[in-house]
Amino acid sequence: MSEPPRLGLRANLAQFSLLVVVNAFVGAMVGLERSILPAMAEQEFGIAARAAILSFIVVFGITKAITNYFAGSLSDRFGRKPILVAGWLAAAPVPWLLIWAPSWDWVLVTNALLGVSQGLTWSTTVIMKIDLAGPRHRGLAMGLNEFAGYLAVGLAALATGLVAARYGVRPQPFYLGVVFASVGLALSVLFVRESHGHARHEASAQGASEALAPREVFLRTTLRDRELQAATQAGFVNNLNDGMAWGLFPLFFATAGMDLARIGWLAAIYPMVWGIGQLFTGALSDRVGRKWLIAAGLWVQAAGITLIVVSTGFSGFAAGAALLGLGTAMVYPTLLAAISDVAHPSWRAGAVGVYRLWRDLGYAAGALAAGLAADWLGLGPSILCVAAVTFASGLFVAARMRETLG
């Protein structure tokens, strides 16, 4: 009789560490675009309207959100590793398509493919780490996962910004993506092992749970459970302001006289602070609880966004970006840990998928709303509107959510 799977970070250290590295390459793929795609829209395709430029984030957010929803159920049905590998196969053509893109419509189609890839790969690495970590260290596990992913987003944004400043926006910056996709796919095929057995073992140890149909998991995560609802809306607003930051901040910095190299640095500071901060905030949530770390993080985000708008130079922009990154570090892994606290292992992957569906629809909502508002009100006022929504989301968490850490 085979020995049952062992839960915990120490018992699964080698495989957990490998998944951290894999998720770094997942994050690097999306970081390719963060500092240069708005400039590419203006310089290469002559697109001036803010809403049109941000359309690439809308497409990315919608496809990633929908894929997130199905990634959980697909990983329960077929296993985690096949879904992870499928995500990397979807990522492989992305940098080549961006290099060859003859029109902005081509870029939009490519971002749909990137969204599918990100939904499959990032969702699966999250689910696999939850499988391996067990109940005691979920916050730490999510902190390490998101640390790797978003530090890589920042480093890739910086690297592509610096390469673009020297060589232009195409094709050289996207050669990095060819390397990222190749290495990520190779690691996933050759070395990642299936973790679904760990989730089944944890479910049996916790005892039977009521069988939940996908519709019930969706309704419970979205509306019926107050903790899951509060976490889901906070995730939506978090990515709403991230979608705005991704699309409008490079344009805002350019109007303030920042060149591509400085925009690359500013585009990198926010996700790098976000990534590094999660090394500490995920583990902190295991000790002090989830609720107030989430609420306070949203308020810190709102303060950082506001500071960027009222600043006039690089140092102020950098301070605001760092503050935004700190607030996001407080929120991001803690929300995933809160979802895992509440959802039973038998339907947890589905709940994570529903949460990530709503969270990443925030990308599309933030980019679309911010782009339309920027065309109507101007860049500064539209960014301040997002800060106000973020602050209100923190108030909702404070009023609605109960502590989930048992």
Keyword list:
mainly alpha
Give the mean pLDDT. 88
Query: What best-fitting shape do the alpha-carbon axes yield?
Result: globular
Q: Work out the number of β strands.
A: 0
CATH architecture classification = Up-down Bundle
Count of DSSP H/I helices: 17
Most strands sheet: none
What's the level 1 CATH class? Mainly Alpha
Q: Report the CATH superfamily.
A: MFS general substrate transporter like domains
The structure class reads: mainly alpha
Work out the radius of gyration: 20 Å
N-to-C order of helices and strands: HHHHHHHHHHHHHHHHH
- First-last Cα distance: 33 Å
Percent helix, as a range, is over 70%
Question: What do these coordinates show?
Answer:
The chain is mainly α. The chain has one domain: MFS general substrate transporter like domains (Growth Hormone, Chain: A, Up-down Bundle). The protein is built from 17 helices and no strands. It has helices at 13-31, 37-45, 50-53, 55-78, 80-91, 94-100, 104-133, 138-167, 172-190, 196-206, 214-224, 226-255, 260-288, 291-310, 314-342, 348-377, 379-400. Helix 4 (55-78) runs antiparallel to helix 5, helix 5 (80-91) runs antiparallel to helix 7 and helix 7 packs across helix 10. The longest helix is centred in the N-terminal third of the chain and has 30 residues, at 104-133. The relative contact order is 0.16.
